[in-house]
Design goal:
heterodimer, A: 113 residues, mainly beta, 6-stranded mixed β-sheet, globular, B: 116 residues, 4-stranded antiparallel β-sheet
Chain lengths: 113, 116
């Protein structure tokens, strides 16, 4: 079945370090891919998305590229800040007459000053 | 404008009781989703409503779970004869519908359900 696998956390980095959170997916058809973020004490919110192969989503210094050949959508940021500490969720949506969305388990990121 | 709201924010119930959770989507959002998030885990899709189309119920874990939505407004998720394994945060999200495009989901704050 359709699924999303992302790297386990927690990930702990120092400020200004490079961040990669891996995400791979299994899907029948051609999904749209998303990264959602949940900051402490807040609800989930969309960080970025890509709707077709080779698309790059970007927002707030984060980027992810839709790689169909490796079925991946890894999240990257060149220089993390303490304020980036949050839980990051990779997700896919399939147009099956509706848009059922499947989420990964989430990766918690801690950034130390 | 107002975001997605959910009530109650917390619910503690005894095993075997029924509970009803409510979601008010953003006005104009025709798509509505329910998810379950167990402690330390990802979001588990439960059900999806889009306008007047038949809902996608493929994620409901058992026949104790049901959900309703009237038109494009409020939705209620009902869990009958609750079990301890039902303890989780139940999240609701809504989004606009623009035909073949996938739009951003806006999430509510969730209802934390504890079954004793």
């Amino acid at each position: 079945g359709d699924s999303v696998t992302q790297m386990e956390g927690p990930v702990t980095l120092s400020e200004e370090a490079f961040l990669t959170i891996n995400c791979t997916y299994t899907a029948t058809g051609y999904p749209s891919l998303f990264w959602y973020v949940q900051y402490p004490g807040e609800g989930l919110q969309l960080l970025l998305k890509a709707t077709k192969a080779d698309d790059k989503g970007s927002n707030k210094g984060f980027e992810a590229t839709y790689r169909k050949e490796t079925t991946s959508f890894h999240l990257e940021k060149g220089s993390v800040q303490v304020s980036d500490s949050a839980v990051y969720f990779c997700a896919l949506s399939l147009n099956t007459g509706g848009f059922k969305t499947i989420f990964g388990a989430g990766t918690r990121l801690f950034v130390k000053a | 404008g107002a975001g997605v709201s959910q009530s109650p924010s917390n619910k503690v119930t005894e095993k075997g009781k029924d509970v009803e959770l409510r979601c008010d989507p953003i006005s104009g959002h025709t798509a509505l989703y329910w998810y379950r998030q167990r402690l330390g885990q990802g979001l588990e899709f439960l059900i999806y409503f889009q306008g007047n189309s038949a809902p996608d119920k493929s994620g409901l874990p058992s026949d104790r779970f049901s959900a309703e939505r009237t038109g494009e407004s409020v939705s209620t998720l009902t869990i009958q004869r609750t079990q301890q394994e039902d303890s989780a945060v139940y999240l609701c999200a809504s989004s606009r519908w623009t035909g073949g495009s996938v739009n951003e989901q806006f999430f509510g704050p969730g209802t934390r359900l504890t079954v004793l």
